Task: structure prediction
Amino acid sequence: MSGLTCPVCGCAAGHTFLRRERVPGTQNLLSRSQEAARAVAFGTLDMTACEECGFVWNASFDASRVRYDQDYENSQTSSPAFEEYVQGLIDDLIDEQEIRNHRIVEVGCGNGSFLRSLVTAAGVRNTGTGYDPCYRGNSPELDGRLEFRLEFLSGKPLHEPCDVVVSRHVIEHIPQPVEFLSAIRGSLSNSSEARVFIETPNVEWILRSRTYWDFFHEHCSIFTDASLTTACERVGLAVTDVRHVFGGQYLWLEATPAEGVEVTRNPGDISELAAAFAVAERDWLERWRRELELAAVEGPVAVWGAGAKGVTLVNLLDPETRLVQCVVDMNPLKQGGFIPGSGHSIVAPEELCNRGVHHLLLMNPNYREEIEDLLTRLEVAVNVINVTERADDPVLIS
Ligand SMILES: [Zn+2]
Result:
């Protein structure tokens, strides 16, 4: 059957399984007033799955609706669980992958903290160049061992050959991921021994775990193990390993430049997973809107986390700001701000007491322990509801 053309494998085998209208174009925009939050650019989700290679993309992605500028704030480093995870990646790269005395390039380095850790770790003697148009800091640093460039890779061979390319949580933002990988491959034409590491969300995990809030406008390209492999193979990167990390939520791929790489395609059971997800989302939304109505009668309801997931959840469940009173976030930069689209207030955890919050909705089970510890320390008594674990329960709020 003919469908939309897949940006990864080029087959006309894409079928749209999920449509959401009026979603915020950018999830991580800091708005300082409710009016500004509600006036953000909106976009449309038409999540589409390729029946040949398993790639999932938003066929209605509109880059003009996305803003990555000074108001873009997506650092997750305020969370101990995430910090521990990232430190584990750094330790693994240095100790297991033996990244020492290496020249490292990071594509989409954000604030540079990951690259800085790989360069400054004790005894590693690495050097690093970070590429990111959004970088806002000094350059060079550390007597020139670390530098930043306000651009992406051009695809031309690097001036100095490198040993490692890392790109974390970038490719899912790129509507033409093969071109992005091709630029990485082109930059390595004089670095034939280089190793490439890519980290990105795992769409199979999203579909299987029914994390509805993991589909949003900025993430226009979401991969399975196989489709990320296909994309790499198409540009001449031979994949040596794909692992599931962070509780299965992310893919961690390792590849190396090669000649004559065979391009494989394996859709797995993407079509079945996508179809089941779409049906489940409709049921879930209906049920949760009803449950929230009941919960709001008992007392104020809050949502934990003003990251992309929290923004999507409250825009899906409560676009009119009727049922959820506020969204809690540990990141001081976000506190006092407002959720793009819906306009919910973002507050510090301490505010839960002042606002008399009764129910707290939690999306990511990876953070449950640290959140419960924090609530105990703050002597906040709330009913914590994990929407992931309890998504299949018929009655969610007693
Ligand atoms: Zn495809």
About this structure: The two ends are 47 Å apart (CA to CA). The pocket of zinc ion is lined by residues 6, 8-9, 11, 50, 52-53, 55 (CB under 6 Å). The chain has a mean pLDDT of 91.
